[in-house]
Write a structure and sequence with these properties.
Calcium-transporting ATPase, cytoplasmic transduction domain A; 4 domains; seven-stranded mixed beta sheet; six-stranded antiparallel beta sheet; 27 helices; 27 strands; 19% strand; disordered N terminus; ATPase_P-typ_transduc_dom_A_sf; Heavy-metal-associated_CS
């Protein structure tokens, strides 16, 4: 799926339309402003001024206003009238009369000035020109159309963001008949089903596939909305554009191009946006009746004045007055001025409105679908409680001595881990004490289960209770019950234990004071490692070394070195040269450089095994409960939504326990958990079919399709810290990433729509009063233009009231 696909085609047409309108708007502004100043300020008039205005007005009322004429013509061909009909007639009537007066009456005489006459003289048919009215009508409406075209073009940003999210290149692995592997890079577009690709730590998975070799933790948050990386191994499926955070993987391609999950999400966004029906502006709906009525009145006025004995010139003057006084300048300003002021005020409050079509949705919103991670919650894992054995759970502040010991032991052991749960434990442990955490050694990671490390002289185990049970430790019922309750509430739980390993012969000799040199149990190879900068790098290099058959490796960031241990009785221990070459290749494949520590020679020595040996005893100290923290403002926001008459609904990719716990905390009754991006879109569509006007609030690529679907009949709202795809697919961006901003968006949107309706009411009400005056001959075209200008000023003044909205 590329930028040349049909999905992306409408983006270019919208860009061309926005550029076309921008060019016409620039010309209109350059020409119209002098016409307005000269025509409205008698002191600025000079001999021949009206001819200069006529020349400046010509490109505005022809080339600049051409889109209005074309649209009005198309509507007329189908027997209907729209705002474009009013705009076109107003411009044509004003300019036609002006040119008539300029060429065939004394209005074109050099030296004639244009006095401000608001009351016509008795029987007067004094000639006037109205170039300023014609040009400013075109200019104001071009501004509104350009803003609309630009916002529609930005709707394509959602697709561009989705299409650019995936990896651009992939490393294809080819295996020859002898089993030797070779690698080469290709563009992702060249991948085919069945290809074998290598994905190194820190790289994006290029396309959908299934793991053939390796284990890792995959960050799928951008695509699926899961808050924690997912542990994967051989035979597990993976999704393109997700991030490989740790181990090197070999992935067999199962889907490419249009068949991938990412392409599927992109199509859903495109389909939802293409399905947006154009919202009929209130002005357009009323003008469908208003335009024919004005046309009929102008014609009837012309005939009536002729029947009553008026001259043709007088009859034309009065008829044109009717058209000019009914000119839709106030109608043209009613929406854009309110939008400009309302959107400016919203921006001050941390809300960015995408376009005018959201206003009707904001007025009618009665249901709001909310994502959990990053929307109602912070999206950052934090320690919620510490539960030492024999004590009650406490928050990370105000712990008992047993709780403090438990947390600091776990923090020291987890210091070398990059897992989000480990990071949360380390942060809490550092914040709890006044002294640095003790250093941990012999760190070992047990994928998907836990870690072990030696802290001081104690072996610390941190991980799942199931793993501790498999190691032979007894997990008390008290802790199992606490773990079960925490899981029900949606929290993640890690257990902390101390273990006692089975002693080796070397340990026994040391304890008895014997002098016998222990029999060697393993051989080690030492390497210098280049390119490591953090604990995550240590983990990646260890995984790379440990991927070689028979090797158990440890890596030291401080000395930038690694030691690879292989049992003395392992077949590979007999060919250290070959083993060293394989280890160097594995490290290189993970993105780092390994060199034998002594020149180019392989160094090795006998030593005792320092891997985690079978346990002969130990004790479980307690549990640490970690959860994604609910935003402090979420409860208040949900309460405010209910006050506005809006029903909240939670839809999340997280498990039912986590979803239910957050929903209960903030006060949401309707919950859908473990949903896919397509499910979210379907939930919004179902609510819409049931008659609800839905606002969707989310922050990830997994929310993009639902956000776009909500725009069909409601609003899509993206949190400001969300992905580009989510923000681009939404109608509203909440800059402050505070769910209360969604409430502000509804309030400002409703208030803006109310002001627009007031403006339109004034604009139409003005016509109801002013048109009879024109029919009666009490308002010549000049006075009609003045009335029109006054109407516009009042509309702008009313729009400025939005500066206090929110």
């Amino acid at each position: 799926m590329t930028s040349s696909s049909p999905t992306a085609a409408p983006i270019d047409s919208q860009a061309r339309r926005a550029r076309m309108l921008a060019h016409r708007l620039i010309v209109a502004c350059v020409c119209s402003l002098p016409v307005m100043v000269i025509s409205m300020v008698p002191g600025a008039q000079f001999p021949g001024w009206q001819w200069v205005c006529a020349a400046l007005a010509l490109p505005v009322v022809t080339w600049c206003a051409a889109p209005f004429y074309a649209s009005a013509w198309q509507a007329g061909r189908h027997g209907s009238t729209t705002m474009n009909t009013l705009i076109s007639l107003g411009i044509i009537a004003s300019i036609a009369w002006s040119y008539y007066a300029l060429f065939f009456t004394e209005a074109g005489a050099i030296g004639v000035m244009a006095p401000m006459e608001f009351l016509p003289r008795s029987g007067s048919a004094a000639p006037h020109v109205y170039f300023e009215g014609a040009t400013m009508i075109a200019t104001f409406l071009l501004l509104g159309r350009w803003l609309e075209a630009r916002s529609r073009h930005r709707a394509g940003d959602a697709l561009r963001s989705l299409l650019s999210l995936g990896a651009k290149r992939a490393t294809v692995v080819q295996v020859d008949d002898n089993g030797a592997m070779s690698e080469h890079e290709v563009p992702v577009e060249d991948l085919v089903e069945g290809d074998l690709v290598r994905v190194r730590p820190g790289e994006k998975i290029p396309t959908d596939g299934r793991i053939e070799q390796g284990t890792s933790a995959i960050d799928t948050s951008l695509v699926t909305g899961e808050s924690l990386p997912r542990e994967v191994g051989p035979s597990d499926p993976v999704i393109g554009a997700t991030l490989n955070t740790s181990g090197a993987l070999l992935v067999r391609v199962t889907a490419v191009g249009r068949d991938t999950m990412l392409a599927h999400i992109a199509r859903m966004v495109a389909d939802a946006q293409a399905g947006k029906a154009p919202i009929q502006r209130l002005a357009d709906r009323v003008s469908a009746v208003f335009v024919p009525v004005i046309l009929a009145l102008a014609l009837a006025t012309f005939i009536g004045w002729l029947v009553m004995g008026a001259s043709v010139s007088q009859a034309i003057t009065v008829a044109v007055s009717v058209l000019v006084i009914a000119c839709p300048c106030a109608l043209g300003l009613a929406t854009p001025t309110a939008l400009l002021v309302g959107s400016g005020r919203a921006a001050q409050l941390g809300v960015v409105f995408r376009g005018p079509e959201i206003l009707e949705g904001a007025h009618r919103i009665d249901t709001m679908v909310l994502d959990k991670t990053g929307t109602l919650t912070t999206g950052v894992m934090e320690v919620d409680a510490v539960h030492p054995l024999g004590e009650s759970s406490r928050g990370p502040r105000g712990l008992t001595p047993a709780g403090t010991r438990l947390l600091r032991l776990a923090g020291a052991a987890e210091a070398s881990s990059e897992h989000p749960l480990a990071r949360a434990v380390v942060r809490a442990a550092v914040a709890d004490g006044d002294t640095p955490l003790p250093a941990g050694t012999r760190f070992g990671n047990h994928a998907g289960m836990g870690i072990h490390a030696v802290v001081g002289d104690e072996l610390v185990l941190v991980g799942q209770t199931r793993w501790l049970s498999e190691l032979g430790l007894d997990v008390p019922t008290e802790l199992r019950n606490a773990e079960r309750q925490a899981a029900i509430s949606g929290a993640s739980v890690v257990a902390v234990a101390l273990g006692h390993e089975m002693p080796t012969e070397h340990d026994a000799a040391e304890e008895t004071g014997g002098d016998k040199e222990p029999e060697p149990t393993a051989t080690s190879l030492d390497f210098a490692i280049e390119g490591m900068t953090c604990a995550a790098c240590v983990s990646r290099v260890e995984r790379a070394l440990n991927s070689v058959d028979g090797v158990d490796a440890t890596v030291n960031l401080a000395t930038e070195s690694a030691r690879a241990n292989v049992p003395i009785d392992h077949p590979r221990a007999g060919d250290l040269e070959s083993l060293s070459a394989d280890l160097i290749e594995a490290v290189t494949a993970s993105g780092y450089t390994a060199k034998p520590q002594t020149s180019d020679e392989v160094t090795h020595r006998r030593h005792r095994d320092d891997t985690l040996r079978p346990l002969v005893g130990g004790e479980v100290l307690g549990l640490i409960i970690v959860r994604d923290r609910v935003r402090e403002t979420s409860v208040e926001a949900i309460r405010d939504l209910r006050t506005l008459g809006i029903t909240p609904h939670l839809a999340t990719g997280d498990n039912a326990g986590a979803a239910g716990a957050v929903a209960a905390r903030v006060g949401i009754e309707s919950v859908d958990a473990e949903v896919t991006p397509g499910d979210k879109r379907d939930i919004v569509a179902r609510l819409q079919r049931e008659g609800a006007t839905v606002a969707m609030v989310g922050d990830g690529v997994n929310d993009a399709a639902a956000l776009a679907q909500a725009g069909q009949r409601g609003l899509g709202m993206a949190m400001g810290q969300g992905t580009d795809a989510a923000i681009a697919a939404a109608d509203v961006t909440l800059i402050r990433s505070d769910i209360r901003s969604a409430v502000t968006a509804i309030r400002v949107g409703r208030r803006t729509l109310a002001i627009i309706k007031e403006n339109l009411a004034w604009a139409f009400g003005y016509n109801i009063i002013a048109v009879p005056l024109a029919i009666a001959g009490l308002a010549n075209p000049m006075l009609a233009a003045a009335f029109m200008a006054s109407s516009s000023v009042l509309v702008v003044a009313n729009s400025l009231r939005l500066r206090r909205a929110g």
